[in-house]
Amino acid sequence: MTTSNHSRLEIDDRGVARLMLDRPEVHNAFDDALIKELNAHLERLHALAEHDEVRLVVLASGGKHFSAGADLHWMKRMVDYGFDDNLKDSRELARLMQQLDGLPCPTLCRIQGAAYGGAVGLAACCDLVIASDKATFCLSEVRIGLSPAVISPYVQRAIGPRQMRRYALTAEVIDATTAQALGLVHEVTDGETLDAQIDQMTDRLLAASPQAQRATKALLARVARDPDSDATREATCRTISELRVSREGQEGLAAFFDKRPPAWQRTGDANGDHDGNPDNKESRS
User: CA 20 to 30 Å from 54, out of 79, 106, 114, 199?
Assistant: First the structure.
């Protein structure tokens, strides 16, 4: 476990990394120190994920709320910042969002309580988000004369341009059910079962080939940037072809036909099947 002043990073023997915002006394609010720590953790996680030493990153926080947004003391200091100092701070936040969004392995975000301001950006950068039914979200920046500028590419990608215009301009509080309908959250559960849902999703993600997940995540990022081009179509063909002849691809196919778990699974997946078919039979489609 790596413990810093405002955050923690734990990696278990399955390769599941738990990255924790650890400022519950201020509802895990952002400041420059927390952003710096998270960037350092994410740099390490990038390297570990590239070498298959980390299979999954779970982003979470302790206390009542996921994150209340910007720290009040940090905001008071920013009042005296000039343009260059503000630009430096903003670039560090942008690096945080980019690093989280670009992690090679799957990312899973656990949201309890409030997720305001930059915390909405963290959720939008993760591949999957599971929230408590008491969770709330808010792009609150315009209320104090600011803008959700740095996080806007990621949040708009998650909820779409029309909904982004509404919530970025009104700073309305979004409840968990609405957040799910918007596409910001994937699953909503009550607070008592939140950790059980996180564990279940973790098992599902660990059941898949780590190489295939990395390749799929990279491919989907390319498809999102350039969905309709000859280069993208060629990339899709190359991705599946490379995976079919790879060691994990060959192992996955062999396991499918042998009706056994593939080598990367220790105890099988959460649903008890190995190929996505409820009866574990060869697909006829």
Answer: 114
DSSP letters along 41-75, please?
Answer: HHHHHHHHHHTTS--EEEEEE-SS-SB-SB-HHHH
Going by C-beta distance under 8 Å and a sequence separation of 6 or more, which residues neighbour residue 280?
259, 273, 274
CA dist 54 → 7, 9, 106, 200, 220 (Å): 18, 12, 10, 18, 20
Decide which of 120 and 192 is more confident.
120
Place of tokens 């298959």: 52
pTM: 0.90
Burial of residue 69, with CB atoms counted within 10 A of its CB: 0-12 exposed, 13-18 middle, 19 or more buried: buried
Quickly count: other Cβ atoms within 10 Å of residue 213's Cβ.
Answer: 19
Q: Which residues contact 1 (CB under 8 A, 6 or more apart)?
A: 8, 9, 10
pLDDT band at 78 (very low <50, low <70, confident <90, very high): confident
